[in-house]
Design goal:
Elements: H1 3-10, E1 11-17, E2 20-25, E3 35-39, E4 44-47, H2 53-66, E5 71-75, H3 81-84, H4 87-90, E6 95-99, H5 100-109, H6 112-116, E7 132-134, E8 137-142, E9 145-152, E10 160-165, E11 170-174, H7 190-203, E12 207-210, H8 219-240, H9 245-251, H10 266-277, H11 288-299
Parallel strand pairs: 4-5, 5-6, 6-7, 11-12
Antiparallel strand pairs: 1-2, 2-3, 3-4, 8-9, 9-10, 10-11
Helix pairs in contact: 7-8, 8-10, 9-10, 10-11
The structure holds zinc ion.
Zinc ion binds next to loops.
């Protein structure tokens, strides 16, 4: 199969409500994120882009197959490269919207993600920063489809936004919630993620398009909550026993969470949970490079990235 055929085989466009689509990249592992496409009468809104140039062009093709109107608004759910590197493909026609801290984090991170997986074919990427930022919330009208963009957290990062369609009861969660994939919050907060999940539950969504993994329902909130509460309890017990996060991870049986992809994220998640247990404020910076190294040590090598 050619690269393009491989990409086609691993992506799916799923209509989750009238003119509202989930763009799902399987299997949802490292850097294989999801996007959302909202098609109005005369304009289109995109929730997140994707990690590589060829994947971004593929996403643009998918939009073109749904509507003749170019993307006029891109909402970035947070600063991670897999959700924003494709911005440049849409920026000539689109306003890029994100939380105000997302812009600064994106600028600071640059293309750093590409150096973690140098073997991935990233293509010619240009970091394209948001041009419209907000603090708490913002409403995007795509024709008659209303989308509430809400800042929550610190949770997955310090600059998470979810996109909530109240009439369709569809929620694009970004990486604040995963589907069949292990949560990841060393750059945000374990406690803050749990609080954010409560806020999402209060919206009473029917359909969740998460940052990674298949489309699901509110049960995905339960899984995220169960996992993160378990990480907190495990961190607490490990600290009481005088163990480091890496030692705790080495002694911990994942149990029901073993079926979630990218289980090695337990190490950085435990680091954040232990730090919070010791009083670190949600979202306060940690040495992510060091945490990533420990995660690789625990995993026995660099986790696979299929972007
Ligand atoms: Zn992310």
């Amino acid at each position: 199969m050619s690269t393009q055929e491989l990409l086609n085989a691993s992506t799916a466009v799923e209509e989750v409500a009238d003119r509202v689509y989930a763009y799902v990249q399987s299997d949802g592992g490292w850097c294989l994120n999801n996007a959302g496409i909202v098609v109005g009468n005369d304009r289109t809104t995109l929730v997140d882009t994707v990690a590589t140039e060829s994947r971004a062009l593929r996403l643009r093709e998918a939009v073109r197959s749904l509507t003749p109107h170019p993307v006029s608004t891109v909402v970035n759910t947070h600063f991670h490269g897999d959700h924003v590197f494709g911005n440049f493909v849409f920026a000539p026609d689109a306003v890029v919207v994100a939380h105000e801290d997302c812009r600064g984090e994106m600028a600071a991170a640059g293309l750093h993600l590409t150096s973690l997986w140098p073997d991935v074919c990233w293509g010619e990427l240009t970091v394209t920063l948001p041009t419209l930022t907000f603090r708490d919330r913002l409403t995007v009208h795509t024709g008659d489809i209303r989308a509430e963009v809400l800042h929550l957290g610190p949770a997955h990062t310090t600059n998470d936004a979810v996109v909530w369609l109240p009439e369709q009861r569809v929620l694009f969660t970004g990486d604040l919630v995963m589907s069949g994939v292990t949560p990841f919050c060393p750059m945000g907060s374990v406690a803050g993620s749990l609080e954010a999940i409560e806020r999402l539950r209060a919206l009473d969504p029917v359909t969740l398009v998460t940052g990674h993994g298949p489309v699901g329902g509110p049960e995905l909130l339960d899984t995220a909550e169960n996992y993160l509460s378990w990480v907190q309890r495990t961190a607490r017990a490990g600290l009481a026993a005088g163990l480091t996060p890496l030692e705790i991870a080495g002694e911990t049986d994942l149990g029901e969470f073993a079926e979630l992809l990218d289980a090695e994220r337990l190490v950085p998640n435990l680091h954040r949970a232990c730090a919070e247990e010791r009083g670190l404020a949600p979202g306060a910076p940690m040495d992510i490079g060091a945490l990533f190294k420990e995660m690789i040590e625990h995993h026995g090598g660099l986790p696979v990235c299929r972007a």
